[in-house]
Amino acid sequence: MAEAGARRSGPGRVLIAVYGVFALAASARAGVQIATKFHEAPVAYLLSAFAAVVYVLATVMLARSGRTSYRVAVASCTVEFVGVLAVGTYSLTDRAAFPDPTVWSGFGSGYGFVPVVLPVLGLLWLRRTAPR
Protein backbone atom coordinates (compact mmCIF):
# COMPACT_ATOMS: atom_id res chain seq x y z
CA MET A 1 0.00 0.00 0.00
CA ALA A 2 1.27 3.49 -0.78
CA GLU A 3 2.21 5.62 2.19
CA ALA A 4 -0.76 7.07 4.05
CA GLY A 5 -0.07 10.67 3.04
CA ALA A 6 1.18 10.04 -0.51
CA ARG A 7 -1.87 11.66 -2.14
CA ARG A 8 -1.42 14.78 0.00
CA SER A 9 2.22 15.40 -0.83
CA GLY A 10 3.93 17.25 -3.66
CA PRO A 11 1.66 17.77 -6.68
CA GLY A 12 -1.19 16.15 -4.75
CA ARG A 13 -1.28 19.12 -2.42
CA VAL A 14 -1.74 21.48 -5.39
CA LEU A 15 -4.37 19.19 -6.90
CA ILE A 16 -6.34 19.12 -3.64
CA ALA A 17 -6.12 22.92 -3.38
CA VAL A 18 -7.43 23.36 -6.94
CA TYR A 19 -10.26 20.92 -6.25
CA GLY A 20 -11.06 22.87 -3.09
CA VAL A 21 -11.25 26.15 -5.02
CA PHE A 22 -13.54 24.54 -7.59
CA ALA A 23 -15.69 23.04 -4.83
CA LEU A 24 -16.11 26.48 -3.29
CA ALA A 25 -16.69 28.24 -6.63
CA ALA A 26 -19.20 25.68 -7.91
CA SER A 27 -21.05 25.62 -4.58
CA ALA A 28 -21.32 29.39 -4.42
CA ARG A 29 -22.38 29.67 -8.05
CA ALA A 30 -25.01 26.95 -7.74
CA GLY A 31 -26.32 28.39 -4.50
CA VAL A 32 -26.77 31.86 -5.97
CA GLN A 33 -28.27 30.55 -9.20
CA ILE A 34 -30.76 28.27 -7.45
CA ALA A 35 -31.72 30.90 -4.87
CA THR A 36 -32.19 33.79 -7.28
CA LYS A 37 -33.24 32.49 -10.68
CA PHE A 38 -33.92 28.77 -10.59
CA HIS A 39 -36.99 29.16 -12.81
CA GLU A 40 -34.89 30.49 -15.69
CA ALA A 41 -32.73 27.39 -16.25
CA PRO A 42 -33.41 24.63 -13.73
CA VAL A 43 -31.41 21.98 -15.62
CA ALA A 44 -28.30 24.15 -15.82
CA TYR A 45 -28.51 25.19 -12.17
CA LEU A 46 -29.09 21.65 -10.92
CA LEU A 47 -26.08 20.53 -12.96
CA SER A 48 -24.05 23.28 -11.27
CA ALA A 49 -25.16 21.93 -7.88
CA PHE A 50 -24.26 18.38 -8.93
CA ALA A 51 -20.82 19.56 -10.06
CA ALA A 52 -20.36 21.25 -6.69
CA VAL A 53 -21.14 18.01 -4.84
CA VAL A 54 -18.71 16.08 -7.05
CA TYR A 55 -15.93 18.65 -6.43
CA VAL A 56 -16.51 18.59 -2.66
CA LEU A 57 -16.45 14.79 -2.62
CA ALA A 58 -13.31 14.64 -4.77
CA THR A 59 -11.55 17.21 -2.58
CA VAL A 60 -12.27 15.34 0.63
CA MET A 61 -11.44 11.92 -0.77
CA LEU A 62 -8.18 13.09 -2.35
CA ALA A 63 -7.15 14.53 1.01
CA ARG A 64 -7.94 11.36 2.96
CA SER A 65 -5.90 8.18 3.01
CA GLY A 66 -7.11 4.60 2.81
CA ARG A 67 -8.53 2.23 0.24
CA THR A 68 -12.12 3.40 0.54
CA SER A 69 -11.14 7.04 0.10
CA TYR A 70 -9.02 6.05 -2.88
CA ARG A 71 -11.92 4.22 -4.53
CA VAL A 72 -14.37 7.05 -3.90
CA ALA A 73 -11.81 9.56 -5.24
CA VAL A 74 -11.42 7.50 -8.43
CA ALA A 75 -15.20 7.25 -8.79
CA SER A 76 -15.73 10.99 -8.23
CA CYS A 77 -13.00 11.96 -10.72
CA THR A 78 -14.49 9.53 -13.25
CA VAL A 79 -18.01 10.92 -12.73
CA GLU A 80 -16.58 14.42 -13.06
CA PHE A 81 -14.85 13.61 -16.35
CA VAL A 82 -17.90 11.89 -17.83
CA GLY A 83 -20.05 14.80 -16.57
CA VAL A 84 -17.84 17.42 -18.18
CA LEU A 85 -17.89 15.55 -21.49
CA ALA A 86 -21.66 14.94 -21.38
CA VAL A 87 -22.65 18.42 -20.22
CA GLY A 88 -20.08 20.03 -22.51
CA THR A 89 -21.51 18.22 -25.51
CA TYR A 90 -25.13 18.84 -24.47
CA SER A 91 -24.50 22.53 -23.86
CA LEU A 92 -23.08 22.93 -27.36
CA THR A 93 -25.88 21.00 -29.06
CA ASP A 94 -28.80 22.55 -27.12
CA ARG A 95 -27.81 26.09 -26.21
CA ALA A 96 -31.38 26.91 -25.13
CA ALA A 97 -31.02 24.54 -22.16
CA PHE A 98 -28.06 26.60 -20.92
CA PRO A 99 -29.01 30.28 -20.97
CA ASP A 100 -26.45 30.73 -18.18
CA PRO A 101 -23.22 28.75 -18.23
CA THR A 102 -22.43 26.08 -15.68
CA VAL A 103 -19.01 24.92 -14.51
CA TRP A 104 -19.12 22.05 -17.01
CA SER A 105 -20.89 23.72 -19.97
CA GLY A 106 -18.74 24.27 -23.01
CA PHE A 107 -16.30 21.75 -21.51
CA GLY A 108 -15.46 24.28 -18.80
CA SER A 109 -14.66 27.10 -21.24
CA GLY A 110 -15.76 29.70 -18.68
CA TYR A 111 -13.09 28.38 -16.34
CA GLY A 112 -10.27 28.12 -18.86
CA PHE A 113 -11.07 24.46 -19.62
CA VAL A 114 -9.70 23.49 -16.20
CA PRO A 115 -12.83 21.37 -15.50
CA VAL A 116 -12.01 19.03 -18.40
CA VAL A 117 -8.31 18.78 -17.49
CA LEU A 118 -8.69 18.50 -13.70
CA PRO A 119 -10.27 15.02 -13.57
CA VAL A 120 -7.62 13.68 -15.96
CA LEU A 121 -4.89 15.02 -13.68
CA GLY A 122 -6.76 13.66 -10.67
CA LEU A 123 -7.03 10.19 -12.17
CA LEU A 124 -3.36 10.21 -13.19
CA TRP A 125 -2.34 11.26 -9.67
CA LEU A 126 -4.57 8.60 -8.12
CA ARG A 127 -3.00 6.00 -10.39
CA ARG A 128 0.45 7.08 -9.30
CA THR A 129 -0.45 7.01 -5.60
CA ALA A 130 -2.67 3.90 -5.72
CA PRO A 131 -2.64 1.64 -2.69
CA ARG A 132 -0.51 -1.40 -3.45
Automatic annotation (TrEMBL):
<feature type="transmembrane region" description="Helical">
    <location>
        <begin position="104"/>
        <end position="126"/>
    </location>
</feature>
<feature type="transmembrane region" description="Helical">
    <location>
        <begin position="70"/>
        <end position="92"/>
    </location>
</feature>
<feature type="transmembrane region" description="Helical">
    <location>
        <begin position="46"/>
        <end position="63"/>
    </location>
</feature>
<protein>
    <submittedName>
        <fullName>Membrane protein</fullName>
    </submittedName>
</protein>
<keyword id="KW-0472">Membrane</keyword>
<keyword id="KW-1133">Transmembrane helix</keyword>
<keyword id="KW-0812">Transmembrane</keyword>
